[in-house]
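Next comes this protein:
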Amino acid sequence: MTLRIHRQFIATVAAAAIAITGFTAAPARAGEDEVGAALAALLGLAIVGAVIKDKRDDRKARQQVHTPHHVTPAPRPVHPRPVPPRVNRKLLPNQCLRTLHTDRGRAHLFTQRCLERHYRHVNSLPDRCHRQVWTDRGWRQGWGARCLNRHGFQMARR
């Protein structure tokens, strides 16, 4: 706001200076004085014009300023693509992982019966990972979780 008052003051002073310059000029003298006065008058008019233009630009800028409300678009639903077959073969169903209590401690196995029901590539599992452990419920067969992990197999996440 103070900037606007200063501009108005400068415009008023410049206009008064131009008006006074016109009254004080000596009549009908040709020469350097007249040329200097004419240049001063033109300079004064240019300054007043620039101040007026600047004032109008300020008004336009103030009228056009608005705060846009940033609206985030609704997230698009994500449709997962099917896993390629070469990767899908290495994902084991998580419901088949069992922790069995044996006389030697705990054993983490993907049980054979569960894998035969829920995993189509049972025959491609490495034979060296096949285990047979004794539990309180008898012999259980399956594939060791750590061994399968070392061979690149992972448990599928839900």
Observations:
- The mean pLDDT is 78.
- The two ends are 63 Å apart (CA to CA).
- The longest strand covers residues 105-111.
- Residues 107 and 157 are 21 Å apart (CA to CA).
